[in-house]
Amino acid sequence: MPRARGRKNKNKKPKATRPPPRKRTRIAMETKEAIHRLADMGMAQKDIATAFQRSPSAISKLLGRDSHPKIGETRPVGRQKLLSPRDVRALKRIVDTAPHASYDAYSWEINAAAGIRIAPRTIGTYLRQQGVLCYKTWKKPHLTNRQMSTRLAWAREHSAWAKEVWRTKSFLMKRC
């Protein structure tokens, strides 16, 4: 005879079902302006929420988000800038005085000048925003064995020349 795997509890209550989530509706611009006017007049957010049939948190978020002079204008997003415009100008001056230094050197300099600890990578980001681009210098190709032997032969051939002969020879390129 097969064994029953689990017994049903007849006294168990059925789970309560939640109501479907309420649809989010956008607040019209006229409504936003009216909410701001009421808030400026000193009306409590709870009363404003009741008047417009909105949740108090929605009104609070709206007033916090649109706390700028213009309605609908948002606050800047992202992380706060590490350098002020004054510090950025100081960094630009440091770069102009030593254009071939590394980001590490610029980091140390800006730390000494402005007292701000900033990563070299962040320095690079700020410089790119300012239009200062960097590049790796090209390496000169190494001399080949043939070039080295030719130079050595020329030096040995001319090593016996007197100083007077060297003074008469000009190795500078003449302009046309």
Task: Note down, in words, how this protein is organized.
With 176 residues, the chain is an all-alpha fold. Among the domains are: 29-65; 85-129. The chain is built from eight helices and no strands.
List the main descriptive attributes of the protein structure presented here.
single chain, 8 helices, elongated, mainly alpha, 176 residues
Précis, in short:
The protein is an all-alpha fold.
Spell out the blueprint of helices and strands.
Layout: H1 29-41, H2 45-52, H3 56-65, H4 85-97, H5 103-114, H6 120-129, H7 145-158, H8 163-168
Helix pairs in contact: 2-3, 4-5, 5-6
- Average pLDDT score: 79
What is the chain-wise order of helices and strands?
HHHHHHHH
Number of helices: 8
Radius of gyration: 38 Å
Rough outline: elongated
The proportion of residues forming helix, as a percent range, comes to 40-55%
